[in-house]
Amino acid sequence: MTLYGEKSPPADDRPTVQVTAVTWPDDGPGPVTVPTGEPEGGRSRPRRVRMLLAAGVTGGVLAAVAGAGAWAYAGDVPRGTTVLGTELGGRSRTDADRELRAELDRRAAALAAPLRVTVGERTAEIKPTDVGLAVDVAATVAAAAETDAHPVSRLVGSRTVDPVVTVDVDRLDAALRKVLGDQARPMTMPAITYQGTTPKVVQPKPGLAFDPQRSADAVRAGWLAGAPVTVPLVESQPVTTAEELDRLVAELAKPAVAAPVTVRTDKGSVKIPPAAIAKSLRFNADKAGKLTPAVDVKRLRSALGDDLDAIEVPPKDATMTISGGRPKVTDGRPGQQLDTATLGRDLLAVLPKSDGREVTGELKPTPPELTAEKLAGLGIKERVSTFTTRFTGGMASSRSQNIATIAKEVDGTVVLPGKTFSLNGHTGERAYAQGYRDAPVILDGKLVPGVGGGTSQFTTTLFNATYYAGLEDVEHKPHSYWFDRYPAVIESTIFWPNLDFKFRNNTQYGLLIDTSYTSSTITVSIWSTKIYDSVKTEYGPRRNVTTPKLIHLEPGPTCIPSNGINGFTQDAFRVIKKGGVVVKREKFTWRYDAEPRYVCGPKPS
């Protein structure tokens, strides 16, 4: 070993040494140059020398590790990562995206090939594009880039990342259902209903179908592997078993209707008879087939009818009338009604009991649905449209009285913005109890006496008033025959309960239906805020005209003769203008049959 220096160093300095072999932390064998002036074998290497040596070796190791780490962490995707057999490791996301797309292009023909799918005992082929099968490249690269691996794992490890495959579950479900066909068997949901006051039971039965999620997973895997797919069929059982259903019948459904229940309030009491209980006690099944009993308080109130008048005071809505050519608001009043939330809960609790069948009802203040303030703010300020039709016979006629009766029922009705008005829903059944009389109606193509005859004339008048107000037509049906007292096509009949007239208030304002009548006319006006310049009707020519046949009928009180009316087809166009331009043009078309000429009597010999 050679030492370099021009002169001896200071006494407390140590000379530079050259090491040929080092072992630490304990001294080991090997030639080491010992500082001058130190006795051989007398002292270990100086501490500073050992620290310098350690630092030098450690620095070298760290430099090596740092270099390896830089190599391992190069790019966004960890080294050793493959997708579909393609090495993406060490690449940026952009490069990995490009490489994966290139691999998918190489596999394009295989991935586009029809997929053989077996569902139950049937097999079919499904095109991948028809069900939205695709590799989400961006999501796959993101999954490949995600790792919490140890640096050493990144340096020497390897891993395979499955592609992220998308599929349109709804389209796949529809395709698989076609293959499944009638092999599917829906669950028979358990049910408890009443026939009168007798419980009727539907026993639960298992269903057979495929699970959408499991099916999608199987199809994704099979598509990538290019292998046939078997979609497993799953038998599903309703949550409520036959034993639980029988228990519900024995412990609730039967005892519930065994005796009445008394509702006691501060204003008196009301008995709920078994028939009303049967109409309101519902056993609702969810999608899993779990039955849950509940009292439908709306049905209960309907079943009790006027019996609740003994303890309740119904709220009264504010009303609007036309007085002196202007709308006038009359305030309503609050009422007192049973608290339906607590009533349903408490009633359900006592229905299984054989005694103590009483509940306490709480009467709560009930505000009117329509207050004077709300009504005044609906923008009902001017007459938007009006329509009048004429009738004969005077008010002594049963038909005329029916027209007046329905007009009075509808007069003053307010329809809120966005709401739909149903004439049948508003009046209910038009029967003798409601003041209606027998008058001619069309039944099976013939005029015969029927309760409520003539109400179609009011319906036509109301329809035209809403039509010329520009309101949305929801449901109407013209008569089978055309009567010249009505405008062709733009008219409507009504018949309980099958034929209805409905319109929707498709404006931002409320509207008022105002009716009036004389001994020969019926008028309906719509009051609101006018939003259109004009609403007019343009008619097309009548076509396909047919002439009436002569038919002889059995004479008697039910035979009503007629002169016959031609049949024809015609178009009517509702033209709506706003701001001087046409904003809507709606086509209405109807085909009228030729009304036969009915003669009450036999054919001449």
Could you tell me how far the N terminus lies from the C terminus, measured between alpha carbons in angstroms? 155 Å
Mean pLDDT: 86
How would you write the strand order of the largest sheet? 22-30-29-23
Total of helices: 15
Helix content: 25-40%
What does this structure look like?
The strands form 14 sheets. The chain has a four-stranded antiparallel β-sheet with strand order 22-30-29-23. Strands 31, 32, 34 and 35 form a four-stranded antiparallel β-sheet that branches. The chain is extended and about 100 Å long. The chain has 605 residues and is an alpha+beta fold. Among the domains are: 242-375, Ubiquitin-like (UB roll), CATH 3.10.20; 378-600, no CATH class. Residues 1-44 have low confidence and may be disordered. Strand 13 (261-265) and strand 14 (268-272) form a beta hairpin. Residues 241-359 form the YoaR-like putative peptidoglycan binding domain. InterPro entries: Glycopeptide_resist_protein, Vancomycin_resist_VanW, YoaR-like_PG-bd.
